[in-house]
Structure formats: structure tokens, C-alpha cells
Write a structure and sequence with these properties.
The chain has about 525 residues and is of the alpha/beta class. It contains 17 helices and 13 strands. The chain folds into three domains: about 60 residues, DNA polymerase, domain 1 (Orthogonal Bundle), CATH 1.10.150.50; about 200 residues, Alpha-Beta Plaits (2-Layer Sandwich); about 230 residues, 3-Layer(aba) Sandwich (Rossmann fold), CATH 3.40.50. Strands 1, 2, 3, 4, 5, 6, 7 and 8 form an eight-stranded mixed beta sheet that branches. A five-stranded parallel beta sheet has the order 10-11-12-9-13, sandwiched between helices. α11 packs across α12, α15 packs across α16 and α16 packs across α17. The structure holds adenosine-5'-triphosphate (ATP) and magnesium ion.
Amino acid sequence: MSTTTEWLTSLGMSEYAERFADNKIDFSVLPDLTDQDLEKLGVVLGDRRKMLRAIANLESVEKKTSAVTISAVAPAEPRHQDTAERRQVTVMFSDLVGSTALSVRMDPEDLREVISAYQKCVAETVRRFGGFVAKYMGDGVLVYFGYPQAHEDDAERAVRAGLELIAAVSALKSPASLQTRVGIATGLVVVGDLIGSGEAQERGIVGETPNLAARLQALAKPNTVVIAEGTRKLLGNLFELECLGAKDLKGISGPVRVFAALRAGSAEGRFEALHGSGLTDLVGRDEEVELLMRRWSKAKTGEGQVVLLSGEAGIGKSRLTAALLERLASGPHTRLRYFCSPQHTDSAFYPIIGQMERAAGLAHDDTPKAKLDKLDALLAQTSTSKQAAALFAEMLSLPNAGRYPALDLAPQQRRQKTLEALTSQLAGLASQRPVLMIFEDVHWIDPTSVEALNRIVERLKNLPALLIITFRPEFSAPWAGQSHVMSLMLSRLGNATRPPSSKASSGTRRFHLT
Ligand SMILES: Nc1ncnc2c1ncn2[C@@H]1O[C@H](COP(=O)(O)OP(=O)(O)OP(=O)(O)O)[C@@H](O)[C@H]1O
Ligand SMILES: [Mg+2]
């Protein structure tokens, strides 16, 4: 970074650039700026705080000599007094393709604008997935997932962010078409307390992982996401991957197996994607399985039942539903499975769209027409009305293409009609065979799907259907207390019923035992 303008842009505060320039504030002056100075310059309070923190970090960067120590610019997390700490972090490195070629063709001002738009796009995209922009390096951006704040699915978040970033950068308006390259690696790093003091301590990350991510980025073809073996191990079948073989990378000991992440995988749900087909035998939970079987028997008679299955992460909610599915496999029924996702808590109808896409067998490379044909084939099984089909096509973001009547409805009406169509669909299915619906991980549900569930819970009272809704304790289920709704809270297994070992494939998903 060579000018304060670039520095301010990297902080997302380019609006102050002119004032800084007018007042001749360059890098040599930055460390001397006080809160009052910034106030006089007209910088608002929140931005003043951010700037002062970033200035503190700048100073520490200058003091550092190690090339692998990276300092962050936009902290917002609580401070700790802790000393050096080993943590697992997923590091993403993204770079704008062909910026050297662009620099020959473009006016420097225009190029700067392009790079700034690119960096902004990266920052916005990764933030949506909980990533932390650690540093802007030329036209590259270094991002952490899992630090300062850890999530159970950081590796997954990083890959989703990388895939989304490629699409977002391609869509950027610019004089030249833009492409990006993304490298992702996961590993143990040491954070904090190594170099510098105070503010700087918790920003530093030292280890091979950032370097590995940078090397993978350099290796990636334009518009691809390349990931390291360590990241792949955490992903199960969540993504379709292509193995690129073992590579020797500068500064990394031994060959590294690398993979290109192509797109989200088609596994039915997170549990299947992360555990594959090789489930360990169910241990204990006999009573719970019996209870679910009894509810199923009752539901089949036409008295619809709802079970609210809750319990902390890793306690065995998904494993229990898998056991029920196994037990019911031979009897006639229709199975509908819905999976909420931690990255889509605001995405309307997300679990419902996923269910319908899988049920219709939509493939990512189908043409829109092929997708509509498949959707039609699915909906024909329940003699769905043309209007409902149009609403579902729209829900799945498929073009109407004159196949269905045009939807002349206001957005609110459209949503109501879609919700109605969904309950009619359920009733249509239940009139053919008993329905087993499993709605997983509702602590991540989007508000529109909650509305859908409200209606479904109400509607299935008189249908041969069992609905199991799973969630962690932080979610408070609005459906409790109705006569056909029962709550089942899973507690930890006692010593007598302890499973031999957990096959959880992700380091952060653990089986809890007392
Ligand atoms: N009763 C059990 N017998 C054998 N293995 C179990 C049992 N319960 C859970 N497990 C195993 O423990 C791990 C975590 O269980 P599971 O994924 O079902 O938890 P969960 O409650 O669904 O957690 P989350 O809220 O994260 O989805 C899995 O590997 C699962 O197979
Ligand atoms: Mg689960």
C-alpha cells in the first residue's frame, strides 16, 4: 500500500481520502494522529475508532520482519489478554487475474478503481460467510475463517465464499472483464503474543497455512478455487472436487495433494455429506426410536404428528433420524427431507428449494428447459395446478418461458400463494402414501420457511404425515404446545450406552458424552 488513499480504501473509508490529502496526511503522519485530530478532520466516531486500531496495526506491521506474520486491518472482535495460542484456521488467499496486463492497458487511475472495486467485492463476499479480511496485499486479499471468531464450519464457509467470489467478481462492472483465483488451506497456526504487543498481539498469525493458501492461489487456473488436503478432509462430500494431484510448492515441506472445488455437492444433507454412507451402529436411543415409531404408527392412521427433536450440537439428532429412516425403509411412504444451512439463514425458502431441486433431480449443467421439464414431471405426480407450478418455478429461479400463466401478483401475495401451494402439495402427496418429513437444523431456518412450517404444522393435523423438526437448544420452537406436537429433547448418553468412537469427520463436530 503506497498512499493513504489506498489505505483508506482498504478500510472501506475512501470518503475521507480527499480530506486526508488536503491536510497533507501521509503515512509518516498517520501514527501521530490522535482521536481529536481525526474529529477535527470530520471523521465520525465509529470510523475514528476503526482508524486508530488500523493505525496501531500499521505500526506493528512495520516493526515486523517475518514474511509469514500477517497483520489484520479491520478488527472488530473483543480483545483477550491471552498469550500465544494454537488454533485451527482456514486461510483464503484471492488474487485478481492479469492485473499486470491490465496495468499496461489501463490508465493508473482506472486501474486503481478496478482494484479497489475488486477488493471491496472480496471483502463483502467473505464477510457474508463470516470471513475476516486480514490484509490487502497488492491486488490480493488474505482472509481468515476461524479467527478471530471460530465457527464449526469454517472450512465449508471458506469454500462457499470462494465459489461465490468467482461469480461476484465476474459480474463486476469494469472496462475489462475480471477474473479471480482463490487458494484455501487449513491448518494449525499460532496466533498472538509473538511479535509486537497490545493490539498487534491478537492480529498476528504465524504458520505454514497462509503461505500454503498463497501458493495454491498462484497455482489455480483463473476463476477456480484450489484447496489443500487439510481443508478437503473437513468437507466430506459437501462439494464436488477434482483432484489435481500432488504438487511441490515453494516453502512447503513435501508434496501437497491439491483439489479444485467445483461446486456444492449433491449429497442429501449435511449429516450425509459429512459422514458418508458408513454410519457406526446406533448405540442406545432405544426409547427414542420406539417413541418415533409409535408416532409414525399414529400418523399413518391420518392423525398427523409433529416431533420437535432438540439437543446440543453432536448429541445425535441426525443420527436418530437416520435410524428412523432405516427402520421405515421397507414400508410404503413418501420421504421429504429439508436441510437448513448456516450460510443461508436469510435466504427465503432455502431448505424447501433444496428439497424440490433434489426431488426433481435438477443437475447443475441442465439447461433451463431441461430443468423445467424435470420440475413438470415431478409436479405431475401430484396434479399440481399451472399457477402453483409457475410459483414453484419462480421459487427455484427458473424462467417461466411462456410455459405457465404469467404471475400477476404483488410480492406479498406471491409469497402467500407459494405457501398455500406448498401445503396443497403436501396434502396431495399424503393422499397417495403416508409422508415422513424431516426438517433438519431449524436453528438456521430462514423466516419465510418458518412461515411455511407454521402452515405445514397446522395443515398436517388431519393428514397421514409425521414431521420431525430438529434443532439445537438456542432455537425456541413456536410450534410447541399444540396437541399433535410433542417435544423430545435428547440428553447425553450414559456411560453404559457410550458408542465406541465417533466417526465425525470434522474436527469441531464432536460426540458429547457425560
Ligand atoms: N446413538 C448413537 N450411536 C452411535 N453414534 C452416534 C449416536 N449419536 C450420535 N452418534 C454419532 O455422533 C456424531 C454426531 O451426531 P449427529 O451428527 O447426529 O449430531 P446432531 O445432534 O445432529 O448434531 P448437529 O446439531 O451438529 O447437527 C455422528 O458421527 C453420529 O453418527
Ligand atoms: Mg445434525
